[in-house]
Amino acid sequence: MRTASNFVTVNHVICLYLKLEIILSKHILTIGLITYNGAKTLRNTLDYIDDLLNSNNKFYCCISDDASTDDTSKILKDFKIKNPSQVSLYIQKKNIGILENYKFVLDKSETEYFSWLSQDDFHEINWFKTLIDELENKKSSNCAIGDIKAISLTSRSNIKLSDYDLNPAPWLFKRWPNDLHRLLFFLTPGPLGKANFLYSLFRLRYLKRKLIMTFDMLTGNGYSDYAFDSLLSYYIIPGSNIIFNSSVKMFKYMNISTTGNFISQRPEFKSKSFILTKIKIIKQEVLLKRHLMFTPNHLKIFLITLSPLSVAINVIYLCYKKLFFTISNFLK
């Protein structure tokens, strides 16, 4: 005969089981995918995400499309139908810009870990598992990153590596005092890959603590999308104690990027010229107010003094890479 106490016990067991099921099925990672007119390469990235989600039901993907005018939104809607429980999709009604779009997917995330992903990039399938293990084993670190390779390809099964190195400069992985870390980051040439820190795996609480106010201040002060990835990385790195694991790889397409799509397709930025593109990069180094906006006062004098050196380093490095590629192509 079932007594009231037995019923309560059974009910408690059921409740505990349901709570345990929720805990076990809780997503631990959100991949924030940003898209804009990316129909040409998006399917490769979505195929990768599909494989990733199938490999681990604790992974989740939050997608924000910035009012694309090509077939991007249709491709994304089909992908959402295929993955209803592990994908959330937001189609912006009007173009909000890349900075706001990056903030949008971050705001929507509630998992323990978070990583941004561009519409034309993908990782080796064990990238996130490996980096999550790294952060689980080292609680003092707040982000981890693997090896980043530039590629030219038509499919994930036909990867062609480029000679171009996209790994952030090795000295930026060191554990420096915060002020020195900012200084080294500022002086590092942009083409050395320093902006790629933005595609690390982050502890979400750390990232939000670092960036939510920064996003609001930047947009409130009328900051455009130029070099947004370098600028955000500039604020993230100090205190991150970043881990580098070269055993896993991320692949980024050369000459095709979300950043390029967001910015270059605007009427005022239509030029494809190599020189003009590099001038825009250098201009970001010169516009110190963007870097100094939230920099401690005692660092500003050093950054102002070293600004010409930063510009010179960028120019020299860009000329070197242009010469290197020209000679390499000639010899092939």
Q: What keyword list fits this structure?
A:
332 residues; alpha/beta; Spore Coat Polysaccharide Biosynthesis Protein SpsA, Chain A; 9-stranded mixed beta sheet; 9 strands
Average pLDDT works out at 76
Helix-strand pattern: HEHEHEHEEHEEHEHHEHHHH
Quickly name the level 1 CATH class. Alpha Beta
CATH architecture classification: Alpha-Beta Complex
Structural class: alpha/beta
Strand composition percent: 15-25%
Overall number of structural domains: 1
- Per DSSP E runs of 2 or more residues, the count of β-strands stands at 9
Return Rg in Å: 22 Å
CATH homologous superfamily (4th level) name: Spore Coat Polysaccharide Biosynthesis Protein SpsA, Chain A
CATH fold description: Spore Coat Polysaccharide Biosynthesis Protein SpsA, Chain A
SS element count, helices: 12
- Global morphology: globular
End-to-end C-alpha gap: 86 Å
Helix content: 40-55%
- Runs with pLDDT <50, length 5+? 4-8, 17-25, 256-274, 285-289
**Main pleated sheet:** 9 strands, mixed
